[in-house]
């Protein structure tokens, strides 16, 4: 999201010289602070603290918080941004002042891609958001609806296991990240549209790149002209156009199919796809138009796809890095499922260690380490400090998950810690908030958990794993790539062998 590596280096360097002189001047003649704002690290004029974020902002912000405290006020260009880094301060934002911080910050690229915020994730807090949220929570992502797509998940998990088996026969390594990405996108595609679309994968990749770009115009608006010359504006328009045409075709197909069936509400069909549910909802909701349907569908991919497969890739990384955990997990899975050809979701209910492994991995690797930024709707006080209306808020869930005051041996991957604890990621325990919490907390938790659990079982039930070239588990590289959803920097390659039961 905030990747300074996307700023051309020479230009950036020359900008620093006058900024250094101005800042020295400002330090000398700086006015004393008049209100009780949170502690702030030193900032440069124009850039503010942008130059301190680096390519992995969750890591830089953790180090800054160790010096300045669990609530800090930064300036990202012209935009004031509070950064939260402890369970207590997160609770203030997500629970005590949840209503005040139920808004989102503005981003030029997201606004364009999501139909001027006709979606749910980034839509400003208000009546439109409330109604779309209610439709998504009650009709698209409810436990009942998620259960209704169980056969889709099971089929896709089996297909993935088939691909792994084919690789294992040829003795070549499988790219687990790629397999998880394919599984997640295919499940969401079938649930949202009723079928899979090949071209969607490439389009989603490009959208994820755009959403992860550091757009200087969001932070230093007068520098927005740069995007006309560096091609960013054209790229956003191209991606928006491709998605718009694609989504229009899908909505048209659904409308035509419904016309053929006499425009009946297909209520008896439990497995109605998301487009059908939204077309039905539109008939009863005057705030909803065609753009709302397209934006919400796009949201399901934008919010649900990268996050889920990133979580899977890290969970499998940690499992393979810790042979003791691999053994314990496979013993649990195999003792519940035996040697039956495939595992179903009823079996998973009897796998507490699997659930602990997923929690532990989400603690150490929340897929969106800084969550989705919030914004204050009015002036308020947080932890005794003044926070002004429109100030953005970044919650460093990554730093909170590794806070030594909240977690024993915080840096260690130890799933057992969850076997004797009731701590969960559902938004009530503020030391574990990979899905956020409160009014704007993730409504896709049940959907995500179902895919995470089944996918982990599908790769561990029938297969034993080793690394190419006899590499050792402890040498597995853990580097992170830059981006909003923080994925592995290098592919997770491993060789599967069919387990002999
Ligand atoms: C491991 C997987 C996932 C993770 C880690 C994740 C994480 C998040 C986070 C951190 C937020 C912002 C919460 C906040 O502001 O407090 C969010 C919001 C959201 N998520 Fe998820 N998510 C995941 C999967 C999904 C799935 C599968 C879907 C839907 C299919 C989904 C749909 C949404 C939507 C629509 C929002 C916006 C809610 C709003 O602003 O009202 N997410 N998610």
Structural class: alpha+beta
Largest sheet: 5 strands, mixed
What is the radius of gyration computed over CA atoms, rounded to a whole number of angstroms? 23 Å
Mean pLDDT across residues: 91
Q: What is the count of helical runs?
A: 19
- The tally of beta strands, per DSSP, is 10
Give me the side-by-side strand order of the main sheet.
1-2-8-5-3
Hetero groups in this structure are:
protoporphyrin IX containing FE
H/E series: HHEEHEHHHHEHHHHHHHHHHEEEEHHEE
DSSP helix fraction: 40-55%
Residue stretches low in confidence (pLDDT < 50, at least 5 long) are: 1-17, 25-29
**Envelope shape:** globular
Family: Belongs to the cytochrome P450 family.
InterPro entries: Cyt_P450 (IPR001128), Cyt_P450_CS (IPR017972), Cyt_P450_E_grp-I (IPR002401), Cyt_P450_sf (IPR036396)
Binding site for heme: 442
Transmembrane segments: 12-29, 207-225
Question: Gist?
Answer:
With 501 residues, this protein is α+β, with helices and mostly antiparallel strands. The chain is built from 19 helices and 10 strands.
Describe this protein's structure.
With 501 residues, this protein is α+β, with helices and mostly antiparallel strands. The chain is built from 19 helices and 10 strands. A 5-stranded mixed beta sheet has the order 1-2-8-5-3, covered by helices on one side. Strands 4-10-9 form a 3-stranded antiparallel beta sheet. Strand 1 and strand 2 form a beta hairpin. Helix 8 packs antiparallel against helix 14. The longest helix has 32 residues. The chain binds protoporphyrin IX containing FE (HEM). The site of protoporphyrin IX containing FE (HEM) has 28 residues, from helix 5, helix 14 and helix 19.
